[in-house]
Every structure is written in C-alpha cells, then in structure tokens.
Amino acid sequence: MHVIDRTILGVAPIRTSLLGVCALLTLLFTIVEPEASQGLGLLARLCFWILHIGIALGAILLVSLLIRRAHSARWPLWLLLLTTGVLGAAIATAPYLAIESLLPSLIPPDPPDSFWDRYALQGPWHALISEFFQVLPLVLAGWVLVNLPLLLNKPTLTTPPAPPQDPAKDETRHEERQARRDEFFAALPEILGRDLIAISSDLHYLNVYTTLGKTMILGSLKYYAEAFDDEGLQVHRSHWVAKAHVERLSLTGKDACCIMSNGQRIPVSRNNRKLAKACFGTLVTKQKPSDIKLAS
Fold first, then answer.
1. Least confident of 1-5, 127-131, 166-170, 236-240
2. Counting Cβ atoms within 10 Å, is residue 273 exposed (0-12), middle (13-18) or buried (19+)?
C-alpha cells in the first residue's frame, strides 16, 4: 500500500514544502531575470529574490499562525486561503517597498510606464497602496498553487465549540464527540481506513497517520484529540498518539518520545511526561544520551 500524502506538492510537510517552494522560485526568478531585478548581477539577483520570496514566506507563515489561534468559526477553505494571502501580502508590502527604495543606488530606475508606477509617485501612502496591489496577485497565486492538494480535497477548517454548560450531560458530550469523529473520518480518504496511529499539527493543518498511510487535512488538533480521548493521548501540543500503537515510551535524559508501531518517534512534552508515564508505564525504556549517540 502506497502512502497517501496530501502535503504541499505531495512530498513533504507544509513547513518543509514552503522552504522548497521558496528555493525553487528563487532559482527560477534568478535565471529568468524578471523586470524587477533586471540590471543586477547574478549574485545580487540571487540575494534580491531570496530576500523577496523569504519575506513573502515569513509573512504567510506568520498570518497562518495568527489565524490558527484567533479564528472563531468554521472557515471555508477558499476564505482561509484568501485571508492568509491578502494579510500576508499586506505584511510584506512595507519591507518590499524598503528594498525597492535601495535599488536606484544599484541600477538606474526606469521611467514610470504603468498606472501603478505613476500612482506611486504621488506620495508615501500611494506608494504603499501601489506596492500592495502589485504584490497581492503574486502572493495569492503562489499560496493557492502551494495548497492545490487541499483545494482538490476540499476539507474544512474547524474550531472547537464552546464547552457544554452542564458537564453532567454525558449523553450530550458523547454525541458531540461522535459528531467530531464522524467529521474527522469524513475528511479522510476511505482507502486509509480508520485505524489511527498518530495525528500531528502543522500550522493550521493536521498530518494524519493510519496503518495504511498518511494524509493531510485542515483542522484543530485539540478539537479532534478531545473526540478521541478514549483511544489515545495528546502527548504534546502538536501531537496525539493512539494508545494501541504505542510500542514503548523512550526516556533519554530530559527528552521523551513515543515509539509508534509505524516507526515514528513522537515527542512528549515536559508537561505531559508524567501523564505519558502513567499511561504507558509498562512500556517505558530508559537510555542515556551517550547510548543514543553510540547507536547512531
């Protein structure tokens, strides 16, 4: 059975994939030499595009983290991508403008030949607005292409609802957990089955591992971890593990991790270490850091 992977470009987690996209775009623009960097030498052109694409990447990651923590309702995927792209472009606008203000000292400026070029000459705020609208299409297009696997899959981003007013209503809580479980499995390809091994958060995405493979969906780890609390344990703010697939709990000095049935090493946070030891006490193995170095 081949692993199913809906990460960016289908090959790596989103953070790694974004860095890969950044490197590819930098190389492409350095070779193609678009108008923005015409007249610069090879090394200067390479630095120019590393800085430009790195700023856009950092802005998008920052907005993604803020949206993950601040959203208050379910977001359609198109709205999430649009909001992230627009805010990312807005954050990147001022740094881009600052970089462009240094270019005249490196290459002679061309006379304004477009509406936005002429508009930017009317004042500082006009220059910011002009830069934003010129940056926005590129940032949005790149962000949409990066998330194409998720657009084709069409999952939804969820946020934990308010807890029930009366915690004694076990039946209501059971129905809510079951609804979350049904929603979770509905977002997974059927070919992956329902035998979960681990769930890991990656920005506002979730990497889901089953005995048959892996996929990526949008969602909140806390939201789904609560739904599967009878089958597993959230051992880290970014990781949930299924109890049935924890082969052992490895303790190495101050570090701890769960060794899973598929070979994954899931880190256990310091705050959850006692809870993990209580849950997997019979599976604990201890190693010295020196043993790990010798083994590697």
1. 1-5
2. middle
Residue with tokens 């390479």: 46
CA-to-CA distance for 82 and 84, rounded, in angstroms?
A: 6
Q: Give the number of other Cβ atoms within 10 Å of residue 43's Cβ.
A: 9
Would you state the structure tokens that stand for residue 95, as one six-digit string? Answer: 């740094």
Q: Which residue has the higher pLDDT, 223 or 203?
A: 223
The tokens for 259 are 């060794």
Return the residue matching tokens 């962000």: 143
Cα distance between residue 53 and residue 30, in whole Å: 11
Report pLDDT digits (tens) over 230-255: 899 999 999 999 999 999 888 887 88
Tell me which of 4-18, 43-57, 136-150, 194-208 is least confident: 4-18
Domain ranges of the chain: 10-153, 170-295
Q: Which residues touch 277 (CB under 8 Å, ≥6 apart)? A: 249, 284
Please name which of 273, 212, 268 lies closest in space to residue 240, comparing C-alpha atoms: 268
CATH of domain 170-295: 2.40.50.1020
Interior angle at CA 144, CA 143 and CA 147, nearest 5: 90
Name 284's bridge partners. 249
Contact 155, 207 (CB under 8 A): no
Each residue's pLDDT tens digit, 82-121: 888 888 888 888 888 887 777 655 555 556 667 777 777 7
- pTM to 2 decimal places: 0.55
Strand 239-242 relative to strand 232-236, pairing: antiparallel
Q: How far apart are CA 120 and CA 100, in angstroms?
A: 12
Q: Show the tokens assigned to 142.
A: 């790149």
Count Cα atoms within 13 angstroms, Cβ side, for 145: 10
DSSP 212: T
